[in-house]
Amino acid sequence: MSYTFGAIMTSHIRNFCIIAHIDHGKSTLADRLLHLTGTVSDRDTTEQILDTMDLEREKGVTIKASAVRMDYTARDGQSYELNLIDTPGHVDFGYEVSRALNACEGAVLVVDASQGIEAQTLANLYAALEANLEIIPVINKIDLQSARPDEVSEDIASLLGVPKESIIRISAKEGTNVPEVLEAIVRQVPPPKGDDSLPLRALIFDSHYDSYKGVIAYIRVMEGAISSTQGLRLMATRSDIKPVEIGIFAPNLKPMESLTAGEVGYVATGLKTVHDCRVGDTVTASARPAPDPWPGYRHPKPMVFAGIYPAEADDYPELRDALDKLQLNDASLVFAPETSQALGFGFRAGFLGLFHMEIIQERLEREYDLDMVFTAPTVAYEVLLRNETTVLINSPAGLPDESEIAEIREPWMNIEIITPTDYYGPIMDLVTKRRGAFKSQEYPAPHRVQLNFEIPLSEIIVDFFDELKSRTKGYASLDYQFAEYRPDELQRLEILVNGEPVDALAAIVHKKDAYHKGQRMITKLKGIIPRQLFDVAIQASGGGRIISKAIVKATRKDVLAKCYGGDITRKKKLLEKQKKGKKRLKMVGNVEIPQEAFMAVLKLEEE
Question: Does the model's pTM come out above 0.85?
């Protein structure tokens, strides 16, 4: 298929994104728009065209942002250039969403006709309104039997303050009414502002690594123009580059000579790692640089940490290479070497959230065929020492001695839960059990309540979401943002096996929970650790004392089996010999701790 992308006036450019809660049909609508505009022929089509990773297709979640340019002739006979920036839907990738929103002037808000407004719908909507985007509300999946389009349109109308008749009702799967969405984009989304004569400022809203062209930065030209021959500068990292090529997404990479203010495209930088080309950075010209970068850049901060160890010690170099390669494509993944007495050599890795950690784990297993041990996830704590210095600890093993600590601060989150009003009680109970504090409530729609809480991050990273879904029969939805670090009575809970502390099983817990968590952990481990030829003592220690203890009894060999009668002294002699052997074995014997023991930390809440 041939493309005819000529120069087009800025007044005929429309930059927009599609925002929605997970599984409300965002990727399906994007596919339909690509077909309608002839950007992708029916012969080349697949489902979820913009989701290029297998994991994205399987989980039905957009993990990486992507972009595509479409040529559209509207009903008024004018030709328009539509730039769709597809954003991730999951809360862990909120920063990527915010940068993508800054590259647009409009947003299509997609709401499922059977599910209605959910937490991330609202979170992304508020982010779009903060970025001053024109909102086009759309109700999707009207072909479902469980669809409630009238009810949902009333909810959206009261939320946005628009007439409910103006809300477009579509079925992206069937293609019903989708052309109306294109017309609404042309009619309602304002054209981009930006002066070609000003110094170049282009916002990087995403990037990926290509083995031939280096890092490919996805850009929106905010001011000025960019050509394939000029030298460029990345303002945050202060790197000067000569671009390999510049171009547009159609939806594959299509080289161009230049991009002007308002256009969306890419720059193949030739850089060898995405660390040099950060999301949110500004590209300017080396010869005539802009005085200031585009506002809003910040460094993505990992919130959840876990140890990654190879199941076989010989696989350590392969694991390091795999993490290096993953980091080429994912700048938000951070890792550093770590040693554990129980697990040997491995890495401490930082993730944006638990879903991000799950994605990395699956990619390591699938793409690099690695067998690994992931330790229980922890969060980063701020520790104020008695000498008034503050250190950041992302592993319980790294906590200084209690005598040196003045206070420990833990990260707290603001969480929003949207649920039918029937489940108000079970949610209150769940959050208060996990040290959460109620802040406020709102009613975005009849029979639906938005509950706002503050809660420690350590209480929601394990199985909070699963329990929330089971208590509300799957109806509640969750969104969260980091609030602040707060001091509390926290201490390290250590597990000792045979008198040796197992650093990979250590945890930082609240003082009031230490006893119960220690007891539950010991009970769990007693059933998991296999019996040895000697007694194995498992102990939980916290606050300088032993909280709980259990013994895994030895497997006994009957040394008296061969004694048929005879003198009692002979039997005593044999038993004494066995006793000495067991004592010696206990001193040199190694207790193998299976993988389930490390995962047991995750399962404690389920009891």
Answer: no
- DSSP symbols for 264-317: EEEEE---S-GGGS-TT-EEEESSS--SSPPTT-------EEEEEEESSGGGHH
What mean pLDDT is reported for the chain? 79
Residues 331 and 443 in one domain: no
- Give the tokens for residue 122: 């609202």
Q: Which residue has the tokens 């012969």?
A: 43
Alpha-carbon distance of 311 to 372, in angstroms, equals 5
Which stretch, 34-43, 74-83, 459-468, has highest mean pLDDT? 74-83
Tokens representing 177 are 């009414």
412 and 546 assigned to the same domain: no
Q: Which two tokens stand for residue 189?
A: 């989304």
Is the preceding omega at residue 251 within 30 degrees of 0, hence cis? yes
Looking from the CA of 115 toward its CB, the CA atoms found within 13 Å total: 22
**500-522, pLDDT tens digit by residue?**
777 777 888 888 888 888 888 88
Q: Give the pLDDT confidence of 116-132 residue by residue, as tens digits.
A: 877 777 777 887 888 88
Number of domains in the chain: 5
Angle at 117 (CA atoms; ends 432, 464), nearest 5 degrees: 30
Q: Which domain holds residue 127?
A: 10-188
296 part of a folded domain: no
- The two structure tokens encoding residue 451: 């509950």
Tokens encoding 505: 């099983």
